Amino acid sequence: MLRTLIALAAVLSTTACGARVVAEPPGAGTTTVTNCGREVEYATPSRVVTNDTGITELMFALGLADRMAGYTISSSAKTGDVASSPWRADFERVPHLGEKITKELVQGAGADLVFAGWNYGFSESTGLTPDSLGQLGIATYQLTEACRNGVAKQRGIMPPLEALYTDLGNLGRIFGVEDRAERLITGYREQVAEAQRLVTGKSPRVFLYDSGLDQPFTSGRNAAPQDIIEKAGGENVFGDLDDSWTTVGWEAVVARAPEVILINDYADGDASTPEQKRAFLEFYEPLKDVPAIRDKRFFVLPYAALVESPRNPAAVEAFARFLAGA
């Protein structure tokens, strides 16, 4: 019965211009893919709600803007990440539904699928989870980078770039745009391979600084910065942590003596701008003997390039050029 209702929702949809009836959306039917280790069957969605910049850009890169009911992102992302997005025109024409995703927002948008992830919209604390949406008859697709790996709430079940390619392939099947997905995957693999030609053979130790004053928030081996750093020729100093985004201690940063600091620019958090983050790092007394601080070796990438997104391959290239010239 649930699948029948979801399929019916894909046929009967509404727009801002009023009600309309779609005889049969492209690729109508059901498709089964593996998402976060589970086989999940999907009716072809026509009113998708996404949460966060990178997730939304995955839809846009696949040419699926017309299959979306809208997206939610923070106000800082709307003025920051969207302004630099290759898909800015899609962001402008698809409805921005709000800053935070909720069950009420999703229901109000008439969503037949929510594309989000754990800590990218899904959270037990807010009550918005795949299970709670399933009880409302709304399907979900979980961002692979944010899949929980079975150890408490740790996230990540495969190398980050493989997570990107997995999601592109799965979404291509679900929406019937497999050819476009395969072209993107092939192009991204080639872009990363070309970037690796710039690697000099040195492997500078790199610390990803996201935010945090008392304790830094950084990337373990399962978040996108791991592959951005590694494919660019560096070594993630916290690449031994079996998690995606996680909190560590400043003592651990000092002990691992990073030679380069990669700053996440997303105009949010305890120290918001890249300039403020750099100033904090340079004047924080415990870090004064860290090689990256001493030698003033910093590089900045936007938030949307450092979470799983279609910007990851370009981020590898940009960082590889920096390391090659540093």
- Report the end-to-end length measured between terminal Cα atoms: 60 Å
Structural Rg:
20 Å
Overall number of strands: 16
CATH superfamily of the largest domain: Nitrogenase molybdenum iron protein domain
- Pick out the low-confidence regions: 1-27
Shape: globular
Strand content: 15-25%
How many domains, as an integer? 2
* Helix count, DSSP H or I runs of 4 or more residues: 14
Sheet bearing the most strands, described?
6 strands, parallel
CATH level 1 name of the largest domain: Alpha Beta
Organism: Saccharothrix lopnurensis
Protein name: ABC transporter substrate-binding protein
Family: Belongs to the bacterial solute-binding protein 8 family.
Domain Fe/B12 periplasmic-binding: 47-326
